[in-house]
Amino acid sequence: MDGNFIVIEGIDGSGTTTQTRLLCKWLEKQNKEFIRTQEPVKEDLHIGKVIKEHLLQDNDNHSPESIALAFAADRLVHLEDRIVPALEEGKIVVSDRYYHSSMVYQPEHGADLKWVREINKYARKPDATIIVDVPAEESVKRQQERDGGKSSIIFENPEFQSKIRQRYIDLEEILDENIYIVDGTRSIEEVHEDIVKIVKEVEQ
Description:
The protein is of the alpha/beta class and about 200 residues long.
């Protein structure tokens, strides 16, 4: 595989989608071949669409294990359908979230971390995982501004996001891969510049 696989991660409201979009705009200006994707996958009839609908319902009708398995299944199909073919063509793949989200969110809901890692062991490692780090308070503030003061996503509360943030930081020690933590409290442009520097480093 000649392409590079870049993942952008972070707690809710950290700006992963914004930074994914900006990175792809930069790649386009550099005349790079790339694809932009996300997890869970949103296309109709895809497993990820069902997951998203569950999250929006704000309920506890499913066990953390069933949700973790659904995410893992969505991920493997995502790899087979989009990520691996693009990498084999030499393209850069930029994904807004990947298995790192499963490793921080599902254990916080009660799934065993070792088990979550096990069911994701066949997922290809990224060449770089960039975690956009913001405090939980900033996360909630941004989400309230984005959602008009209310949200239907079950993960959005300060105490929960603080725990998730720490789990993201801990990934540097847990995983044997290239993880970069970027200060997301600065301007969008400054965060973007740091991400571009990391991507340039990965390409060398």
